[in-house]
Each structure stands twice: as structure tokens, then as C-alpha cells.
Amino acid sequence: MRYRGEEALGLVETIGLVPALKAADEMLKAANVELISYENIGSTLVTVMIKGDIAAVEASVAAGAKAAEEIGNLTAHNVMPRPISYVGDIVSVHDIDG
To answer: Is residue 3 one of the residues assigned to a domain?
Structure first.
């Protein structure tokens, strides 16, 4: 899914794929958000990216960060209310349906 900066952006970064998948699952269940993409840097850092309205993204990222921390290593999480559209070029490199 191409992200153009029109909605809030949520990110959760973990060490390893298993906590990232757990985070993604919880993020998508926690609120009305959409999965944009993921980034896997080698076999270590994995970032899951979602979009939606600010309240939904905040709730989603909180749930995903908590879930990842419970089973693995959470390295970072962030909510960007409405980043500039150029950020979309970065986060859409590995978009889910592209």
C-alpha cells in the first residue's frame, strides 16, 4: 500500500521477525489501521509500518510495542501525526501490495 503522508504513520521496530510479526498482528487488531509496509535490515532489525487516524495509530503502536516487548526485543516505536509526503517514498519501498 502506497503511503503519501495523508494520515498518521506508526512504526514499531524489533530485533528479529517473530516479535515484529507479533507486533503487526496486535497493531492490526487493536485499532482501525492499515499495514503499509515492513523493512527488514539483514536478519536483525525489522520495522512494521501502519497508517490511520492519529488516535487509532497511537493505540495500535502502543499495543504493538507492548506485544513485541513481551516476547522479544523492541528497539523503537514512533507515531508521526502527518509527516511530509516525501516520507512516503521511504516507507513505501517495500509496500505490502506493490
So the answer is: no
Q: For the chain, how many structural domains are there in total?
A: 1
pLDDT in tens, 26-38: 999 999 999 988 8
In a domain, 2, yes or no: no
| Identity of the amino acid at 57 | V
How far is CA 44 from each of CA 29, 39, 63, 77, rounded to the nearest angstrom? Answer: 25, 11, 21, 16
Among residues 30, 22, 9, 6, which one has the least CA distance to residue 71?
22
With bands split at pLDDT 50, 70 and 90, how would you rate the model's confidence at 24? very high
Tell me the DSSP string of 24-38: HHHHHHHSS-EEEEE
Nearest to 95 by CA among 17, 38, 28, 25: 38
Q: Sheet harboring 45-52: ordered strands across?
A: 34-41, 45-52, 8-15, 73-80
